# Entry
Amino acid sequence: MASRSRWSLAIACSLVAGALLPTAASAAPAACAEEAPIRAAADHWIAGNAKPADSTWFNSLYIKGDIEAYKLTGDAKYLNYATAWAAHNKWKLPTGTPNLDGPEASQEYIDLYQLDPKHPASDIADAKAYVDKEAKKVEGGQSSDMSYVDAVRLGALSAFAYFGGNTNIDAMAKLFAYPESHIYDSKNALWWRDSRWVGTTQHWSRGNGWIVAALTDTIAYLPAGDAHRAHYISLLQAMFAKLKATQQAGGYWTADVDHPAAYPAPESSGTSLFTYGLAKAIQAGYLDAATYTPVVQKAWGWLKGTALRSNGVVGYVQGPSSHPSQYQPISPTATSNYGVGVFLMAGVEAAKLTPGCSAKF
# Structure
């Protein structure tokens, strides 16, 4: 199993000092300018959604962003919110989900488990049970359910890397190999959403964002010498070059990456996922900082300056969909839990590249 993050040490120290997750901000006002938009978006969402929600992917992705907001700000109200969500769901994955949209929550449970050394291993038991079950299916020759781009992220590819071991890593590789061989457009270094779009020039923004987020998180758990890691990095580097070329002048990407004129409205969830992955890859050292930091800065500038409204709403979020044409034109006020979550993810990773913020990590 991957080692627990350095955030575990921070939590342990606060517990020793008697700071048992106070609801007020635990840190003095910081010089990090990126805290303001992060707090604005997270606080607005929490204010309107005080009760813990279920563990379906929509809500789980908000929690991912909420956890990242805690890491940046040190404000325990965000950690409390995420922990209350996990407790409400008994650290379980949703039941009755017919495809691989359900396991996303396992990645958030793992994040929370890594943050607090006092969490019992039982808190990630359901996540591990999912990985073990899928690995056994793959080992038995069953074909991959990762037949559409959403499933690569929501099917928790990174959880296989986190738990590790030959069986899980082999399963991870085989699960991912299916979509790569069926819906990856190597000519354009982008992905079709599913088999319906193979051979077309339509490449859905959020769908490609799912791939970016899945691979960057998975790579973070794989050891430096792992052959799969090198391959995933190569795929991402090709994607990032394409994304750099298709970023719009305002800093965003549209719902169809290659055809902005078809659906010219900005789309914030895909833009957020791209920003998250780009920034994370720069920090990990497999993406050139001089070339790509301006891409991140431009994207985050649009997200915090335009997508984030003055009242804390994260707008321009395409609704639940599978291709660019749905919910068009995307409204400046269109929002969702997952849209806010990936906005927070993007902002925290962008902050790590920002003077005055990077020292916090």
